[in-house]
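**Fold in tokens:**
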Amino acid sequence: MQILSITIFALACATMFYALFGYPLLLGWMARHANNPVHKDDKLRTVSFVIAVYNGEKFLERKLKTILSLNYPRNLMDILVVSDGSTDRTDEIARSFASQGVRFLRVPHGGKAAALNAAVPLVAGEILVLNDVRQTLDPDCLRHIIACFGDPKVGSVSPRTVIVEGDIHEEAATSAYWRYEDWIRQRLTRIDSTFGYSGAFAAMRRSLWIPLPPGTLLDDVYVPLKAFFQGYRILYEPTATMYDFPTVLQSEFRRKVRLQAGLYQMLMIMPELLGPRNRMRFHFLSAKYGRIVIPYCMIAIALATIGLPPFWRSLAAWGQIVFYGLAVLDPLVTDRFPLKKLTSPIRTFVVLMAASLAAVRVYFVSPTSLWKEASYRSATAKPVPDPAEPEEPKVPTSTGV
């Protein structure tokens, strides 16, 4: 029993170490030695924006202004807003931009996948840009993105995300998670390809679009991976910039549940991800499913602790008690107290791991029930200046390298 407990404990610890530290170190080394450049050009291509919105009145006007203010010829841009059965002022705001060439489509509420399936056939630009309503764009973002399509191997491109600096530790901790994600994506791009584009801003060759199956949770993974298996690259372009708000932890929990549930779903939809056709299989398993197993490793460590030799049992047990105790304590610690710098990241990690466990709900509930509206404590703050009201922006925390 003791040997079994030691074995389980050691294997679980080793797996967690590899997923959290070992693989990123290996990825960084592999990226430094990769030689797979993107062959860009300066050709200006026709672009069709499709913005799928559900109750986006807080952000839609700003989003349309930032698109209309892009440093790109207006005659090459088509903009279509599709309202997914919105019940607020979304439709009214979208229609108010009709004089500026913005088209509008309303569909019954059925989720993002259904809205995109209805809207994309109505646009015909060479490059299709799928946009969420919340984020704003640097004026040169689109030009940097379009330049990548000079490489015939490029199927889709997303910009880097700059998160506005949060003014509480909870927001700072979730922003740090996003910086880690961006670091991974940039290095995967240097090697070959990422495993999906950003659902907030995804540019792709219009010819590569395919309808989404009903209930698809990760439209930003399903569509680009279909192109990936045709030999195309999915890129993350660090010279193109998109701005976003920091999210509160409760919202990040719901988002993580959907993302991890989507990964479970992708194995059912696209089993070739685990087969030899996946030229990035090692990275896919390490970067995506390596993190899925972390919460199970944490459970295994807790259970195996019971059977460890007395000294190691005491050491491991107290270590876990302190770790989880700090996570529980975090909501009671004020932002001004120095301990918050430790408790907030620990709580964020524990909550995200709990979300990963909760993702198995995808096998028992309707996938669309996992879509939830994001929450932002700083939802009234401006991530970048309003194009119509020039001002000094709040200093952002860059997720680029």
About this structure: The first strand starts at residue 47 and ends at 53. Strands lie at 47-53, 77-84, 102-107, 127-131, 136-137, 154-164, 201-205, 233-244, 396-397.
